[in-house]
Amino acid sequence: MSKILIVDDEKQILSSLNRLLKDSFEVVTCDNFNAALSALGEQDIDVVISDYNLNAEMSGSDFLNVISQKWPYITRIILTGYSESSIAKDALNRASVFRFVTKPWDDESLLSVVAEAVKRSKIMKKNTDLLKEIEEPSEEITEKISELKAQMKEMGKEKKVKFKDKRYHLVLLAKSEEGVRNIFKIITEANLNGFYYKPRINIEYIIENKKDVIVLSACASSWVTNL
Questions:
Q1: Burial grade of 97 (CB within 10 A; 0-12, 13-18, 19 or more)
Q2: How far is CA 76 from CA 7, 11, 64, 128, 181, in A?
Q3: Taking Cα atoms as reference points, which of 24, 103, 119, 114 lies closest to residue 77?
Q4: CA-to-CA distance for 48 and 212, rounded, in angstroms?
Q5: 75 and 47 in contact (C-beta within 8 Å)?
Q6: What is the spatial distance between Cα 144 and Cα 52, in angstroms, rounded to a whole number?
Q7: CA distance 38 to 44
Q8: What pLDDT does residue 18 have?
Q9: Closest to 6 in 3D by CA, of 142, 170, 117
Q10: Residue 34 · residue 63 · CB < 8 Å
Q11: Contact 45, 71 (CB under 8 A)
Q12: How many Å is the Cα radius of gyration of the chain?
């Protein structure tokens, strides 16, 4: 069951929201920011609903901004008795708040907002996990390529090394815009200086332009899979 953290210094508000949400979600309530941060560090929270104006040193948008930095996949909702647009703008801009809900709220509308927030959190968390899975093997490949380059330098053959003198298919993936630019450079070099009409990419040139580039190969005997 998805977990919702509610932060408000009014016990009546905490009780009302708990009654409204407990049938559909697991609810955690806190009456101050320090307790809320402890809960976030100890539990797997999907959505945070925070009052904007707690009796504390920081505002609700400050608190949610901390969450956005440490736990960006958690969806954040501001709950407040204020209706001024300036407050809503502050919360949206500083903490990337998902929704701005005023007191008193409409139960059905709030339930719908929380359900949407949970869906967003699940997607964000899945994307974060997938990105980690992509980055981990990329770091391993980069490390092994660096080791290979060091060995080539020691042998004095850095510009003449051949990998079994065979052609292999490579797949290049970009992790950022800089990675896309580096892939364009690699492909351009391959087409301009390849063998006749068949593009060729030198390992040395890939290493020189490897930043934010993931190198993969489906060929079992290629230099990539044998690193």
A1: buried
A2: 11, 20, 7, 17, 35
A3: 114
A4: 33
A5: yes
A6: 50
A7: 11
A8: 94
A9: 117
A10: no
A11: yes
A12: 26
Q: What is the pLDDT of residues 89-132, one digit of tens each?
A: 666 666 678 888 888 888 999 999 999 999 988 888 887 777 66
The CA distance from 137 to 167, in Å, is 23
Residue type at 131? L
pLDDT tens figures, 181-205:
888 787 777 766 654 445 567 777 7
Task: Identify the residue whose tokens are 């009780």.
Answer: 15
